[in-house]
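Customer escalation, tier 2.

The customer says the design service returned an amino acid string that "doesn't look like it belongs to this structure." They asked us to rerun it and document both sides in this ticket. The original structure tokens are below, unchanged.
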């Protein structure tokens, strides 16, 4: 194997290792964002459920407004 070919292979390998490291960091950051968004969605769902339960306490859906 010639020296130039070996250097070329080593260079490509170094670029691939750098790219893999960059992609791993990106995937890690995305996973953190996904976990955060899941937590936010769960909190919003709990809040909506509690508001819906609180809003239905003793009230009818088609109740006449007080000015009638």
């Amino acid at each position: 194997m010639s020296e130039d070919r070996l250097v070329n292979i080593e260079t490509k390998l170094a670029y691939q290792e750098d790219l893999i490291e960059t992609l791993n960091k990106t995937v890690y950051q995305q996973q953190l964002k996904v976990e955060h968004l899941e937590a936010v969605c769960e909190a919003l769902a709990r809040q909506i459920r509690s508001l819906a339960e609180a809003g239905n306490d003793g009230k009818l859906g088609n109740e006449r407004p007080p000015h009638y």
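Tier 2 assessment: The sequence is consistent with the input. The mean pLDDT is 90. The chain has one helix and no strands. Sent an explanation to the customer and offered a walkthrough call.
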